[in-house]
Structures are given as C-alpha cells and as structure tokens.
Amino acid sequence: MIDQTIDEIEEMQTHSSSIVAVKAAEALRSLTDDDFPTVEEYVRALDRNSSALRRAKPSHASLYETQRQIITTVSEADLDTVEQAQALTEEVIDEVVETVESAKQAAAERAVELLEDGSTLLTHDYSTTVLRTFELAVDAGYELTVYITEGRPRYLGRKTARTLAELEGIDTHLIVDNASGHFLPECDRVIVGMDSVVDGFLHNRIGTYPITATAADVGVPVTAVGASAKIPEGGFQFENEFRPVSEVMREPAEGFTIENPNYDATPVELLDSIVTDEGVRRYD
After folding, report:
1. pTM greater than 0.90 (yes/no)
2. What is the model's pLDDT at position 59?
3. Distance separating alpha carbons of residues 237 and 35, to the nearest angstrom
4. What class has domain 110-282?
5. pLDDT, position 10
6. Residue 3: pLDDT band with limits 50, 70, 90
7. What is the DSSP track for 106-172?
8. Which helix (H) or strand (E) holds 264?
9. CB of 209 within 8 A of CB of 240?
10. Superfamily (CATH H level) for 1-105
11. pLDDT band at 284 (very low <50, low <70, confident <90, very high)
12. Are strands 196-198 and 201-205 parallel, antiparallel or unpaired?
C-alpha cells in the first residue's frame, strides 16, 4: 500500500499539500497490521517508509512536518511491545490528520478577517485553504469579485474557478496568467496559498513571484495563507520539482529546451502578510 501511495503522491499535481500530507500519514497505518519481531524492527520499518513518502514530494513542508511528528513520537516513546508501538502510531496519525484539518480551518478564519465585503481579489493556483477562506467569507454574507489566473501549465486555476462559481456571492472571473498585471490595479488584495516558507522565501506554485512583484509595484497587498506546519523551524530543505516537458508542449522540442519548474520563490518582504493557524505575520 505504501509503494502505491508513493506513486500516487508523485503524480498528485492537482491536490493541495495538506491533502498530500494526510494521504501520506494514512499510508503508514498499513504497518500497524503487520507482524514485527521487535519494537526496534517496527520503528525502523516505520522510519524507512516515512522517508520514502517524504522523498515523493520533497517540496512539501507539511508532508515533512507531519511525517517527522509521527516518527519522532513513536521512536522516542518508551514502549515494551510492538503492539504498543502500533497503537501509538494509530493515535499520532489521528492527531496529525486532525491537526492538518483544524489548522486549515483556523488559518482560513484568520484570513477572512483581512477581507471586506465588496472586495475585489485575485488568486493563483488551487489552494484548499484559500477556498475555505472564500467559503467562510460567503457564509458571513460577503459579496466578492475574484479573478483567478488559469495556472499554466496544468491549469489548476480552472479547478479553482469551477469551485468558486458554485458559491453564491462570488463574481468569478478566470483570466490567463499574463493578464494579472492588467487586472491587479482593480484589486484590493491578492490571496494565495503556500507550499512552504523557508529562509525568507515563500515557495508556491510557479507564477506566484511575478504576480506578487507586480502587486507590490501597483500597491496591492498580498497575503499567503496556510497551516503553520508549512513554516518549519528546522531540518526541512526545500527542493523544487521539474515537471514533464509534455505539460508545456506535446510536440518535440527541436533546437530548444523546455523548462517546467513547479514552484518559484517569492521574498517575504514583498508580502503584506502570512496568515496561519497560529496568527498573522506582517511584512510592512
């Protein structure tokens, strides 16, 4: 099951990082049904499989943090039997999954406080936390206009647009990525998700940096919203992913090279704020 999950995670390009983290945590449950001669053997197997899951998406801080929490909790516990170790694994997986979901909700609740009824917003990519923010705004009676960039080359913005179009109170507009500069002067705020914040840079879906830089130039505040687990305190090293060139162009590239990075790095100084379940970080 874990090998299958690793393959699925490597191919999960239309899901947010929180969904990936939950899927990886749940995959470790399969080890709680297996037989192991000693606690040490079980912990080694748990650590080995967790490492493989983390390698499937080395760009995801939330995946790293949730897996680290599971392994650290079990390996540092003073356990006498394999059954105890497996029971503890089940418990910490439940805690991790609940924390991921509750952190998303808490971050969205804080982000809504930065929005105002009647605002015009722009968002990029597909973020379940950003979507939850808009849902909560609608529940509060807000009416919003939202511009969504298409999110080439996998067009995740289209997925966001279809979701927002179903919400009463949101006037939804899908635009091509390069049109963001045209519409930004009309916007009151840009709100995006985040994959990780490491060493003073917001890592998010490719295209976030130019949107943020343009927003800063025209005086539109940019807010990144996500779980605090995406701002790791240490140990995590961000690694970008380069996707298949066929996503950019299907026919052969003759005489030129196609590059397809998954993420870019935005200096946090260009942001107005980062909102997590733990609070709001300002960058004035």
Report:
1. no
2. 83
3. 34
4. alpha beta
5. 67
6. confident
7. HHHHHHHTT--TT-EEEE-S--HHHHHHHHHHHHTT--EEEEEE--TTTTHHHHHHHHHTTSTTEEE
8. strand 263-267
9. no
10. translation initiation factor eif-2b, domain 1 (1.20.120.420)
11. low
12. antiparallel
